[in-house]
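Table S5 (text form). Sequence records supplied for joint modeling of the two-component complex.
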Amino acid sequence: MSPNHIDIPVLIDQLAERLKTVIAERTLNNPLLIGIRTGGVWIAERLHQKLHIQEPLGLLDISFYRDDFSQIGMNPKVKPSQLPPRLEGRDIILVDDVFYTGRTIRAALNEIFDYGRPNQVVLAVLIQRDGKQIPIAPDCVGIQIELNPGQRIKLTGPEPLGVHMELVKGAA
Amino acid sequence: MAGNLQLTPEGRLKHFLTIEGLDKTLLTEILDLAESFAGMSDQQVKKVPILRGKTIVNLFFENSTRTRTTFELAAKRLSADVLSINIATSATSKGESLLDTIRNLEAMFVDMFVVRHALSGAAHFIAQQVAPHISVINAGDGQHAHPTQAMLDMFTIRQLKQDFAPLKVAIIGDILHSRVARSEIIALNTLGVAEVRVIAPKTLLPAHVETLGVTVFHNLSEGLKDVDVVMMLRLQKERMSSALLPSESEYFKCFGLTEEKLKIAKPDAIVMHPGPINRGVEIDSKVADGPQSVILKQVSNGIAVRMAVMAMAMQPQGARV
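The corresponding structure-token record, covering 493 residues in total, follows.
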């Protein structure tokens, strides 16, 4: 799959439509949309408009919750998360750009639960690629793709949104 | 020399002993990271997992409540295991040497020491002696440095005044005995404020203080003119070996900050004090509890800033910059 074949506006429309179905099926009540920095926020901003959600978008920076601090240290560009102070009992739609190993989502869930115990969390991602390492999966996906193990796909943005494919150094 | 010891070959923070030798980029990195940690106070669970499994020892050879407590809270909020050793009741009082105390704690797989000591250079000495994986944070050494106090004050100033460049800052009181003052002066100049003033009687100023990059005033009213930030210092009676002052009440008359005196500074000037306050000696209660006082904000910010310094020093060596 070449990144040129990925039409992001179309994918976001598809994701929004699927999300509407999930919101109805899971009976999400007044859902709070949360984007994971940085790419997830760009997608979440667009979904926020398309789903006509009134409440401001939540922003999540998972840097302090990553599981690789002892290997690679801290992201020096970490910014404060911006979430409503109480997530107790809320229905949450968590948004990220690319779902890969699942570790980002684990970190995000841990952080969300430190703000309180939500009622439901639904995960929406623009792109799901192969390579999952922990038992976490998205509920709502724009497109599923398969890549070679050494390949990485990244969202570029915020305007316009694009997809960038790169080879990871030292990857198997 | 201390500057090099503090940094890894890649220029990252390894120990935090003094502001000296650290550049503006690194100080700004500490402030930025602290800002992210400060945001955590919105969380119900005020804790992040980054130092899980690490052991931090607070080694306080000198009394402190605020600093020790905020270091302890900071370590706990980073999920480290932390213990505070009260040296007065430890083996040191039975004659054990500092180095033996350190070696014994090292044998308990400690990852970080937070050290306060009455002797200048104590934290530096410990940093030279510890195993390579251990980080040392100076929580105040004699009259030398108190770098985390300086950084939490820089954080508080930036929070309220945004930009350092136009600011005039006055540090008032016992500069001679103050490790806080030394660290503040270096930090303020590194971050590039317009002017740092020191206001004190001649007997409470170190010799050649102007070489630190400050303007010296001996008169409070003159020195306070057009000032944006007023930093009061505690009169350190316990460190005064001889009579440097006629009396406390005379000191208050000349150098104590009252509402009247504060009016000479800019109307939106903020008043800071590292604590503990001697009410009625260096500062009037009405000012300490007044609308321009940010003294308690300083205390809250101490947690976030100490979290930032601990997290940065505990990063794996050779990690990405």
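Note: Residues 4 and 29 of chain A are 37 Å apart (CA to CA).
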